[in-house]
Design brief:
With 165 residues, the protein is α+β, with helices and mostly antiparallel strands. It is built from two helices and six strands; from the N terminus they run H-E-E-H-E-E-E-E. 34% of the residues lie in helices and 15% in strands.
C-alpha cells in the first residue's frame, strides 16, 4: 500500500487555476479600457499639433508677405492661380491625411489696416472629424472653432474660446 498516495499527502499540480486566469483577464481588460481611449486621444492631439504647426508657419509667411507687398496674401500654395499672390505650400502628408486645404480670408481694402483669417478643417470622413476647425488671424489670435463658424477676414476669437488645446 505504500505505493499509493494517501488522501492526506498533498499533490503538486502544475499550471494555473481557472480563478487565477480569470483574475488576469480581468486586470488586462481594465488596463485596456483605460489605455486605449488615452492612446486615441494622444494620437488626436499629435495630429492636431501637426496642423497647428502648419497653420503657424503660414501665419508667419503671411506677415512676411505683408512686409514685402503691403497686403496679405489671398491664397495658400497650390490653391493660387497666380503664384505671386499666395504664401506657403501644400501641407505635408502628416497634415493633408487628416485635414483639408488651408483657407485664407484676406481683407486688403484700401484705407484700412489689412487683415486675414486662415482656417484648416478636418476631413469630414476622417478620424479627426468633429475635432473642430483650427483658426489663426492677423491679430495673433489662434483657436479651435468647434462650430466651424469662422469664414471671414474679420473673424476673431470668441470670448471663452481657448488657445489651440
Amino acid at each position: 500500500m505504500e505505493k499509493y498516495l494517501s488522501m492526506s499527502q498533498p499533490t503538486h499540480a502544475r499550471g494555473f487555476t481557472l480563478i487565477e486566469l480569470m483574475i488576469t483577464v480581468a486586470v488586462v481588460a481594465i488596463l485596456a479600457a483605460i489605455a486605449i481611449p488615452n492612446y486615441s486621444e494622444y494620437i488626436k492631439r499629435a495630429r492636431r499639433s501637426s496642423a497647428q504647426q502648419y497653420l503657424s508657419d503660414l501665419a508667419q509667411q503671411q506677415e512676411q508677405y505683408l512686409t514685402n507687398a503691403r497686403a496679405y496674401a489671398i491664397c495658400v500654395g497650390t490653391t493660387c492661380s497666380d503664384s505671386s499672390a499666395g504664401v506657403g505650400s501644400a501641407a505635408g502628408s502628416d497634415v493633408s491625411t487628416y485635414y483639408g486645404s488651408a483657407t485664407v480670408y484676406a481683407d486688403n481694402t484700401a484705407g484700412q489696416r489689412p487683415r486675414y483669417t486662415m482656417t484648416i478643417a478636418p476631413i469630414t470622413t476622417g478620424p479627426m472629424n468633429g475635432d473642430g476647425m483650427l483658426v489663426v488671424n492677423s491679430n495673433g489670435q489662434r483657436w479651435r472653432d468647434t462650430g466651424n463658424a469662422c469664414a471671414t477676414a474679420t473673424c476673431s476669437r470668441p470670448s471663452g474660446a481657448y488657445d489651440w488645446k
